[in-house]
Amino acid sequence: MSVFHSGTCDCNQIELYVRLPEPLSSYSPRACDCDFCSDNDLVFLSDPSGSLELVSTISLEHITQGSRQAEFLKCMNCEQIVAVTTEVDGVLIGSVNSDCLYDADLLSVATPVSIQSLSPKDKKARWDKTWMPVTISEPD
Fold first, then answer.
1. Which end of the chain is more exposed for a tag (fewer CB within 10 A), N or C?
2. In DSSP terms, which residues pair with 96 in a beta bridge?
3. Distance (Å, rounded) from C-alpha 28 to C-alpha 7?
4. For the segment 54-112, what is each residue's pLDDT rounded down to a tens digit?
5. pTM (2 decimals)?
6. Cα–Cα separations (whole angstroms), residue 121 to 3, 36, 78
7. What is the pLDDT of residues 12-36, one digit of tens each?
8. Are 82 and 16 in contact (CB under 8 A)?
């Protein structure tokens, strides 16, 4: 059984569709302690058995930080970061900014995580186990 959730960036230019195998109330998003995530108050949600679809009416800004392995996807209009992605074995995977979900208040309190000390290889391996497949539709 899948549970579908939706949301948008602050200006509604980017729509988010998340499919999760469990109800949202059973999830605790992750709050990474890296400088970028901390400075932007980012909290991410993913489930490797779920999926994320982003549909944008405007081009997304792709930002790399730290080890430059992951891309943060930012709305060029309201400047909200909506997701983070990376590619593993030719598959785009990622995690959604849980603050963008309409029913984010159903989530448990965020769990702090620290991946700063992991090697680039270990970061990819961790993301491969915790992130979900992502599809992105944006103008060229």
1. C
2. 45, 83
3. 17
4. 999 999 999 987 768 889 999 999 999 999 999 999 999 999 999 999 999 999 999 98
5. 0.92
6. 32, 20, 33
7. 999 999 999 999 999 999 998 888 8
8. yes
